[in-house]
What does this fold into?
Amino acid sequence: MAKMKKRADPRKIKREEHKQKLSKLQERVDNFGEDEADKEVSKFEELPLSEATIEGLKNSHYVTCTDVQKRAIPPALQGHDLLGAARTGSGKTLAFLVPVLECLFRNKWSDVDGLGALVISPTRELAVQIFQVLRKIGRCHSFSAGLVIGGKDVAMEADRLAKLNILICTPGRLLQHMDQTSGFDLSNVKMLVLDEADRILDMGFKKTMDAILENLPVDRQTLLFSATQTKSVSDLARLSLADPKYISANPDTTSSTPKNLEQNYVCVELQDKLDTLWGFLRTHTKFKIIVFFSSSKQVRYVYETFRTLQPGIPLLHLHGKQKQGARMDVVSKFSKASSSCLFATDIVARGIDFPAVHWVVQVDCPEDAATYIHRVGRSARFGKSGKALLFLTPTEEPAMIQRLEAKHIPINKLTIRPNKKKSIKNQLQALCFKSPEIKYLGQKAFISYYKSIFIQKDKEIFQFEKIPSEAFAESLGLPGAPQIKLGKSAEKMKEEANAKKNQSRALQKLMRAGDDGVVSDDEKEVRTKMDRMFERKNQNVLSDHYLNMVKGDADEDEETGDFMTVKRQDHNLESDDDEDVANLPTSKRAAKQALSKKQSLKNKGLGTKTLFDDEGAPHALYEFDDEEDFKAAGPVESQVKEFVDRETKDMEEADVGDKELVKQKRAEKKRKRKEIERLRELDEYDEESEEEGDSEEEQAAKKPKWFQRDESSDEEEDDGVLEVEEPTTLEDLESLTSKLLKK
Ligand code: ADP
Ligand code: MG
It folds into this structure.
């Protein structure tokens, strides 16, 4: 017996050992930095980390700490709040993920403890990337980690949420779960990390973040990381940071751009930008290049036209209006490519770690120096070298260069060799003439560009009035500048925006107007003009989708655009063929409804059952019953009750079956629709992808108001023209004045 007992002991001993190890580790953490030798630490294994973390790092080939990791990890382990600023590509991700793992480990976190650490990223792509790094270095731990980003099924995510210990997410989706998912509890969170913190704290995410922060425990630890760190007092107050430590790891220079990044700019007229870009790509076909534009419309136009003209380098494009699957695909393709050109919006401006990007080209001027720093930071990462090229129009040049100089960004002016110049204007014109889709994209790109300039904060750089509209339209291959009458509506919008303290809606409107050329009242004229033009011309060659849009009767659930009116309000939703009905013009629909069994039953009232005697005369059912038998069966009330109960039960059973059937039919329909969509995508015309944002918007319409706002901010982010609200509020001015952390 005694022996048996002893045998059970090893587990206890193990537990005891583990406990001792933990307290030893804690001791090492607490005392770290007291020894002089600790300052010389250069390897992860010399830091007071758990074996599992060290093992995970080693297996992922991380051995030596980078500067920011060396400086940030120890104080983070000791529980301090951090403000970490280090150049792009200097290894900030590990600087916060290691403390996340260690914090939970030393708190003996397990499944039952729920969510312990929350990492927030401004974009989906960056969240995915952080998650991948976490999976690599955390593999020897037993925590469960999850990724919660938009573009996926909320319900599916919701199922897993309750079990997660570490969550990587985008602000919008996190808030959505806080709102909708029962059992999702933030009250236990020990650590909050904001990657690209200044971006998350700026106006675009303000409402969302405030709602999130409200639900987090105050005694949590908070880590903020970015290459362009916020110092705004109100930002820090919002986060209730407790005596934060500033970690700055840009030791050899005050600039936040990598040392081995060669930075250049050229001065180009707006109308010559595409020629210049074309010339650049033709002479750089063996490189890996990212080209930034200010809006998704421009990305699409340039992508569609350039791929037809074939510059001789594989082209890819990435923007927020694509479906999530397509976005992921592009990211992985571009990551693997050795030579490729990616046209993108600011959606990938921050944090994304594409390996070995040779060139970052900015065709449209970044909205501020911070955005510039992040964009060029996609190249020359982690000690590699890279080059950057910025296009500035003569009006943008003086002010923008000033802004960059103020941040100590070393940038050289280049001129393009005249013999390398080649105009593609004629080809673009021919393309627009031949293809109404291209022309349509061109018009949208034109409008979007105007909007993007209009909503910029820095009016010294972005001078809306000075856009050479005719020449610009011509350079896009358009026969004339689309008449958007922005002058007038711009004034109006400005007034509106100034009047409203909360601008996100105005901006949302503005953005949508930019996206579809539709929406607000004073913009209506724009739309009708374009619409009329398109209705008149080439109607049969336009894509079905476009025609649907014009008619306003696109039918699919997930694809309903925001410019469509509610067209299903009188649908019989139980009917499994409601979508077919939606497609029919009113008269046919009315006809179909009139023939519908369900409808006619509705009007008929209750049925009666009649039996016929031998002579063929009708009788009510009871007339055939024997009165004695009836009486014998019990009192009337109980018979009635029995009958009703029986029928109810039957009905309920039938109902379950029916619902199942309807569900199956719907699923089948959805599958077919997806199939068609995929075919269309294969057809290489991805007008559908436009609707991605819209479907979210449609969902948002069903959500509480405060949530809708958030969607708007997501959308803005997707369009890459965020951080653009007019600087009318205190926060705005503050974020404008927030400076780089200097040594
Ligand atoms: P940042 O967030 O500062 O822009 P990342 O965390 O994305 O930088 O890291 C940039 C690159 O450096 C990544 O490819 C990453 O794998 C690599 N890296 C980071 N830390 C280390 C390290 N200690 N040893 C080797 N490579 C590292
Ligand atoms: Mg990063």
About this structure: The chain is about 50% helix and 10% strand. The longest strand covers residues 261-267. The radius of gyration is 31 Å. Residues 542-569+581-603 form one domain.
